[in-house]
Amino acid sequence: MRKIIAAGLAALASALPAGAEEPVLNIYNWSDYIAPDTIPNFEKETGVKVNYDVFDSNEVVEAKMLTGSTNYDIVVPSLEFMARQAQAGVFQQIDKTALTNYGNLDPKLMAIVATNDEGNTYGVPYMMYTIGIGYNRDKVAERLGTDTVDSWSVLFDPEQAAKLQSCGIALLDSPSEITAAALNYLGLDPTSEKTEDLDAAMALLAKLRPYVRYFHSSQYINDLANGDICLTVGYSGDILQARNRAAEAGQGVRVAYAIPKEGAQVGFDMLAIPSDAPHPENALKFIDYFLRPEVSAAISDHVFYANANTKATPLVAAEVREDPGIYPAPEVMDKLYTARPHKQRYDRTLTRAWTTLKTGQ
Ligand code: N2P
């Protein structure tokens, strides 16, 4: 039996044109980050079978990528993480000549991306996000006397955080992003790697720590939607998905998203192809498919994140395109900061400090 299968496979392999890839594509993307028909439509059109895995943390992806041999063809790290991994040789250069829709990308956003990926060499922007505050309007109003949050002080002022403890505060399990928010609140450079700045950020977070129910980077979507927590630091679109789920459930839970007035992080998640990807041609095929305006627009409509495709913008549903939490106004954009790739040594120190913060030891 095994021999027959082997012979069959050999016949199949020789039937494929020389150099052609088997029709398979292995994608590793963030959870809650794609439209339901994106993959099925691609499979139908190309005959390529997609294996789709998800994650919710850059740190987890980075550990895997640096170990190598992941078998993935497309991974979607955030830009500053992709940049670091690219320096370590993890990704191959994007063959832009294979991407007929590359010209749809917004030159202004591509210039911002290029500050961390010189020449836009290693990645194609998938979606843009901000990191802000998601909250339950009524539970916050009961405790703080207003149903509108506009400042990081709801967290970083221990008196306010203490009042919200009973209804549940969550934080992203993301050392880089939460520390940057703390640095920014303190008026320090959110990309600082100075020891004294990290100490100050950790001291601020330590004051908040007793009031935090959990650290997790995706669970808050359901918890906010169900009213099980009342405040989280999270990713823009995920919080807006929570708002949407809450509205659909019709139980009267009102969720809102705030980009606080002190500023917040803006970032890009990047489609990147590992150096050892088994199916790099199929990866490019998928990226080019994604760059079609209607494909990018359908994803934005579903996940509430902005894409970087100018031709897609008019196709995005008005309620999404006009939501300032998804496509921030220019004056808000001016207050946002981007992250930079960490140096190895800082990264180790940060990871240690983060573990200490979470476990209290
Ligand atoms: C998707 C989260 C993507 C934004 N759930 C964070 N990179």
Write up this protein.
The protein is of the alpha/beta class and 361 residues long. The chain has helices at 2-15, 38-46, 58-67, 79-87, 107-114, 137-144, 153-156, 158-164, 175-185, 195-208, 220-226, 236-249, 280-290, 293-303, 318-321, 330-333, 344-359; strands at residues 24-30, 49-55, 74-75, 124-136, 169-171, 212-215, 231-235, 255-258, 265-271. Helix 2 links the parallel strand 1 (24-30) and strand 2. Helix 10 runs parallel beside helix 17 and helix 11 (220-226) packs parallel to helix 12. Bound molecules: pentane-1,5-diamine (N2P). Pentane-1,5-diamine (N2P) binds at residues 30-33, 78, 129, 235, 238, 269.
Task: State mean pLDDT (0 to 100 scale).
Answer: 95
| Rg calc | 22 Å
Q: Sheet bearing the most strands, described?
A: 6 strands, mixed
- List the bound ligands: pentane-1,5-diamine
Number of helices: 17
The shape is globular
Oligomer: single chain
What is the CA-CA span between the terminal residues? 58 Å
Measured as a percent range, the helix fraction is 40-55%
Count of DSSP E strands?
9
Instruction: Give the DSSP E fraction (strand runs of 2 or more residues).
Output: 5-15%
Structural class: alpha/beta
Low-confidence stretches: 1-14
Order of helices and strands: HEHEHEHHEHHHEHHEHEHEEHHHHH
